[in-house]
Amino acid sequence: AQSVAQPEDQVNVAEGNPLTVKCTYSVSGNPYLFWYVQYPNRGLQFLLKYITGDNLVKGSYGFEAEFNKSQTSFHLKKPSALVSDSALYFCAVSLSGSARQLTFGSGTQLTVLP
Amino acid sequence: GAGVSQSPSNKVTEKGKDVELRCDPISGHTALYWYRQSLGQGLEFLIYFQGNSAPDKSGLPSDRFSAERTGGSVSTLTIQRTQQEDSAVYLCASTTRTSLSGELFFGEGSRLTVL
Question: Is the confidence at residue B100, as pLDDT, over 80?
């Protein structure tokens, strides 16, 4: 079975400060890892993914994520937060090459304070 | 349209009534997913369609839930004899690839409220 944990329901950060949204996963095989963002009353939007290769993945809106195999983590980061980054963030995992459904985490609400 | 379209955007119904939720995926996308998002919880997988293959129904929570996809395009999720615990946002997503190396494209969801 595969699973994803987002240990923080809520993350608050001041505008201009760096932000981190944590994600750890459990999967028996090579993981495909994803971050999605959900703005209020909207569907989820893809941010970035890790399939293979460089552990640091860059995505949309200045976000990046670091794959750490030993710690089974895939934390989302941004060097300088914007108020407009305030949203619900979901981490997701899937087995490599699998056409089955993604397993999503429970989400982390990010609030960037002006 | 260019994106995944879902209707209705909001649905309020009485307990025991049947509801139908519609999803129109991006043209050419062969894979279609339904998820349920409950308040304070993550996304719960419901069902997955891939081309003409038999759907993966392993996530449907009870036999009151069913879904079909006609002509490999539009999908309808039907909930019979709705219960209050069915209240949630139902999200549809589509993608071009059979593997998940590609991203999912989500609609804006259908918010269901069962009174």
Answer: no
